[in-house]
Specification:
seven-stranded antiparallel β-sheet; Alpha-D-Glucose-1,6-Bisphosphate, Chain A, domain 4; 2 domains; alpha+beta; elongated; about 220 residues
Length: about 220
C-alpha cells in the first residue's frame, strides 16, 4: 500500500477562511472560549459539528488546535489524526481473518513482496511498498493491532484491523489507523487504505461472491 504525503487542501489560515468562514486562529479562539480543550477530542469535534464544519476541516482544526495548545498524550506526542475504512465482505469471518494472518493472502491486497516473520504478538511484517510493523495484539477473528513502523510517518502510529461476523457467510472488516501526526500523511493513508480494502473486496467478490450467487441459483432451481 503506497501513500503520498500531500494534504487534500492547504492547512492554512487563508484556506480555512475560504472553506469554513474563519481562519484557524479564529477557530482556536472560539474553542478556547468554549472550554472544549480540557474536555477532549470528542467535545472539540462536537463544537465544530454544531458550527456545521465539514468532517475534513473539523478533524484538521481539532488536531492542529490541540497541537498548537500543547496537548499531548502519555507518550509526549499529540493525538494527531485518525483514518478509518470499513467494508462488508461476502465470506465467513474466518476466511477474512486469514487474509491478514497468512503471508500469501496478505500480499494479495496490502502490498507486493509481503514477508511475515511470525504471525503472533511480537512478530513482524514488511512488504515491497515500505509498509512494516509489529503485531502488538491478536485476538483470532476479532482484532489485530499493529505498531506501524513506516519511516515516512515517524514513530508511534497504530493500525487496528477488526473483524465481525455478519451471519454464517458474511463479515464486516474495518481498519483504523491512528496517531498520524501530519494532515498530508492522513490524507495519503486514507486513499491508501481505501484502495487496499477495495482490492480485498474485489478478491472476495471474484471468489466467494460467485460461489454465493451459484448457491442461491441452485437453491432456487431445487
Amino acid at each position: 500500500m503506497k501513500a503520498n504525503t500531500t494534504p487534500l487542501r492547504p492547512v492554512s489560515d487563508d484556506s480555512a477562511k475560504l472553506d469554513t468562514g474563519r481562519t484557524l486562529a479564529a477557530w482556536y479562539s472560539l474553542l478556547d472560549d468554549s472550554g472544549a480543550l480540557t474536555q477532549g477530542r470528542a467535545t472539540i469535534l462536537d463544537h465544530l459539528s454544531a458550527k456545521r464544519v465539514d468532517p475534513w476541516w473539523a478533524e484538521t482544526i481539532a488536531a492542529e488546535y490541540e497541537r498548537t495548545r500543547g496537548v499531548v498524550e502519555k507518550d509526549g506526542r499529540p493525538l494527531g489524526y485518525v483514518v478509518t475504512v470499513a467494508t462488508k465482505l461476502p465470506a465467513p469471518v474466518g476466511r477474512v481473518f486469514r487474509h491478514v494472518a497468512e503471508e500469501r493472502l496478505l500480499d494479495q491486497w496490502l502490498g507486493p513482496d509481503t514477508s511475515v516473520t511470525f504471525f503472533a504478538e511480537g512478530g513482524h511484517f514488511r512488504n515491497g511498498d515500505g509498509n512494516r510493523g509489529c503485531f502488538r495484539r491478536i485476538e483470532t477473528e476479532r482484532i489485530v493491532r499493529i505498531a506501524w513502523e513506516d519511516p515516512t510517518l515517524g514513530p508511534g502510529s497504530e493500525v487496528e484491523f477488526s473483524f465481525r461476523p455478519k451471519g454464517a457467510a458474511r463479515a464486516a472488516f474495518a481498519v483504523a489507523h491512528s496517531r498520524i501526526q501530519e494532515r498530508g500523511h492522513a490524507d495519503g493513508l486514507q486513499a491508501g487504505w481505501d484502495g487496499a480494502l477495495a482490492a480485498l473486496r474485489e478478491i472476495f467478490l471474484r471468489a466467494w461472491g460467485k460461489e454465493e450467487v451459484g448457491s442461491r441459483l441452485g437453491e432456487a432451481g431445487g
